[in-house]
């Protein structure tokens, strides 16, 4: 197991008086063991205990024979996996439960280990995972570096006359050739489609003067990249240029704010106040950003209601946008890594207004 990470979790468990934790999220299990196991509907649990008797409960269907530094408890499809797990649970003490553990497992465990108090244990893991360690920082940089290369190749394809769907397919080929996967289904949106922040690529073809939103992310060695660029085809109408400038400035103002001790809500406000002052506040319909790491959306967002303070090692997106229904959509997104005195921008693809074709 990744002992430093496990130790951090155990420290927080002890502080909060939760002596045991049931972890089921494959990303969290990877974070602690270095092994991705996708159990589908079957039970997979890493049980951590402040007493040190950690166990990995795993179905015989998943042939994980390497030494992960934790004892494995095997079971098969004919056995009651939760009953086996419950034998190891200390029924006198609270149990932290993974928030994403299917209810049928938890309800069964509540029957089996009735004396225990069940609490949301994910808050502990989520908080530790927010601050990336040295190895993770390097992996986050690597993923964004590859995403920059992919964005460059994708932008060069825009004049080729592809529908949104076809261009999205080309991106999967680009990622494949670069040896990475997708961290999420890419958003490629032309013209009026770009006014839907979560538009799914369709058969639309690009017209001159339209904007193109490219919101793409690769996944490399388990870690996610995420970047959005908005470019224009052939020319940018003056009105759209004005919108672009406002969003671009909002992106820069928010990034300029990022340093340890600043609250997430103040970073959100830096972007939002600029867009509001320009008169487009109601067209910036989402939060400014989200944490990212092993998963593309992790706990902790850059929003008006998150009063938590930023700490070194946190990685999150800064992605203000303006979506004017039926007219134009613009979003500019970067990932930042908080450093001791400020932040490092993980992706470096061109951000100035770009015309292609
Ligand atoms: Mn994003």
From TrEMBL:
Keywords, alphabetical: Hydrolase, Metal-binding
Pfam families named among the record's database cross-references: Creatinase_N, Peptidase_M24
Protein origin, superkingdom: Bacteria
Enzyme Commission number(s): 3.4.-.-
Key word Metal-binding present: yes
Domain named Peptidase M24: residues: 139-340
PROSITE patterns: PROLINE_PEPTIDASE
Domain Creatinase N-terminal span(s) in chain numbering: 5-131
InterPro entries for the chain: Creatin/AminoP/Spt16_N, Creatinase/aminopeptidase-like, Creatinase_N, Pept_M24, Peptidase_M24B, Peptidase_M24B_aminopep-P_CS
Molecular function terms, GO-annotated: hydrolase activity
Keyword Lipoprotein: no
Family note: Belongs to the peptidase M24B family.
Entry protein name: Peptidase
